[in-house]
Amino acid sequence: MTEPGATQPDQPPAGDxxxxxxxxxxxxxxxxxxxxxxxxxxxxxxxxxxxxxxxAELARFAVAEFGHFExxxxxLQDLGTxxxxxxxxxxxxxxxxxxxxxxxxxxxxxxxxxxxxxxARDFYREVSAYLDADTHELVxxxxxxxxxxxxxxxxVRQAVAADPRVSGRLALWARRLVGEALSQAQRVAADRDGLxxxxxxxxxxxxxxxxxxxxxxxxxxxxxxxxxxxxGLSA
Amino acid sequence: MTEPGATQPDQPPAGDxxxxxxxxxxxxxxxxxxxxxxxxxxxxxxxxxxxxxxxAELARFAVAEFGHFExxxxxLQDLGTxxxxxxxxxxxxxxxxxxxxxxxxxxxxxxxxxxxxxxARDFYREVSAYLDADTHELVxxxxxxxxxxxxxxxxVRQAVAADPRVSGRLALWARRLVGEALSQAQRVAADRDGLxxxxxxxxxxxxxxxxxxxxxxxxxxxxxxxxxxxxGLSA
Lengths: 235, 235
Known about the structure:
2 copies of one chain form a homodimer. Chain A is mainly α and 235 residues long. Helices cover 74% and strands 0% of the residues of chain A. Chain A has helices at residues 18-45, 52-78, 83-87, 91-100, 106-128, 133-142, 148-162, 165-191, 193-200, 210-230. The A-B interface holds A 33, 36, 39-40, 43-44, 46-47, 51-53, 55-56, 59-60, 62-63, 66, 69-70, 73, 83-84, 87-88, 91 and B 33, 36, 39-40, 43-44, 46-47, 51-53, 55-56, 59-60, 62-63, 66-67, 69-70, 73, 83-84, 87-88, 91.
């Protein structure tokens, strides 16, 4: 939680600076469409569930993601932006990612949700370091995990324990997910200067320099490896 | 809300009579699985939406259905029943219905949600006349429409106005939905004596006699025709 008045120096509230405001709208639009597609994917993966309770559990996570979407949509409206227009630039990349990584099994769906959401969450947390206090608070709060991770780790570890061959297949699957995610992220970065500038400091604000970027990618990779080993898979 | 002690005469609370209790568990199990599949179907139909706002709107209805599912699941647990076991007898029929009526277009999805949910809602409301006060209150409250109907009517009428040929195709589609729903309902009725007895009074309780059943089907048909004409379609 951010204290009132805890706005960091050099980080004015969204709206004061048009370039900064556009970058924030981009960020919230990308996050919002990410949450909306997360809702759809989890709801659809729930159909692969091995039991009715597991199906309900996944549906519950989908509903939590939709709650995040609603908060982001409202913030976009409060900023005087049409949420559809803010999400539009990210539809193609996110849809392409999901089309190329449609899980064929319950376990693939779980690993995708855990690994994919994990990387996205870490990335947005890194970006949020350069945000004004209000946006920072919203972004970190919608990125909170609703207990999904614990459920996935338990299910995947059980499956790997029951049949060790599962482990190699899921590790390969996770590598494919990371590859597809990176390739779509590059596409978005090439397209959306404002969003990229927010990260690398090109908006004449405090941003990350090259060394900071390198160490960010290092942190993302390390967190990904930790997630993979908590699943009992090699990264 | 039901006042304590407002239980109707001849309608003891669920649990006093084993046959009645089994019928109520059947009813709540059927409704719960109906809500869970409604969640999945609406979430998946949202992918057919022509705009991001329409997609979000349908996702919002899916989330409302999941809230109903959670209430039914909790009630089943309060009755000392495993919710999965209570839903299980209805999985095959409901899945078969949805598999045979997977919408190919956004409008087919909307008509299915409106027409199908409408008939199911009317049917459960009729059944709930024979329930104890607590169960009656829960059933009528989860059957409340969350504004979905209004949205569907507006979208379908606009589409029919823009292209009158749409009307005949959607009217045919609605007839197919009703046919499939009836055939799956018969399958459930043949299988679940308790549930059927609840409706026709075979549990030695106040139920519907044949004349009452005939007039119930008459009311269901009339309500269906009204829904069709509010969509601008012939029944």
